[in-house]
Amino acid sequence: MLQRVLARLVGGFAVWLAVAALTFGLTYLVPGNPARMIAGPQADPATVARIQAQLGLDDPVWLRFGRYIWQALHGDFGTSYITDQAVLPAILERFPATLMLALGAICVYLLLGGVLGILAAVRPATVWDRLASTFAIAGYSVPSFWIGMLLLLLLAYRFPVFPLGGADTLWHLVLPSLTLGLAGAASYARVLRQTLGEELRKDYVRAARARGLSETRVVLDHALRNAALPLVTLLGLDFAGLLGGALLTESIFAWPGIGNQAYRAIDTLDVPMIMGTVLFAATIIIAVNALVDASYAVLDPRLRES
If 0-12 CB within 10 Å is exposed, 13-18 middle and 19+ buried, where does residue 209 land? Predict the structure, then answer.
């Protein structure tokens, strides 16, 4: 198992470098001059040139990229062009808010998606099955930002049940968590319906029923544990992605997380902040993937034996 995790980490580092190169290349190709953005539209060419030299923007692209990667590997993601703040501390300062939002979305994933998936698998061809299928289709089809705008219009503006934005209380967490969680819950309901339905048709489930166990114990104690294994991978990937920052959702609800910060960085062409946020998210995803691989051996004894 250790070799498997180490191999995943080595491959993850290669992916990390590829993500860094791709992001750096895209920021280089985007029209606009960061020095001009900093100096302002009325600045003279000499001022813009001086800022370019101070930021090292006159150096060759390969040299700038190599210097950035070397600094990033030492924990230095650069300094924001706009706020003149170190990028990594700025990200870590907003990370708790993003973590709270990610946990809220995961709760919606598991509670809503899990309940619908279990009911659909246990009672196929019933109203619960049709409801889960309809919910899954809607969750895949409707963009999350549209759901967020609709929730904001109905439950915060038209009927002011929840706040319009911010992160002062737990009430502020409800609407953004639902916005992120509904699409994920639809995916979890579909996957769990399929995997749990397959498990319930296997011999060990029939044997458990023959021993006189209640249907609740058969489903929850026996079938669900094996059916939930694919959800472990989904949960790890989804949680890592949410920790990387839900850019549009945080912007819609004025949530003070790293996604909202990245949105403003893109708007102002703050290249160090863009690069830092992307690499921070990539690091989390790679680390969580390695942990998911390790957890499989704990959850599935067959992998430990192999």
Answer: middle
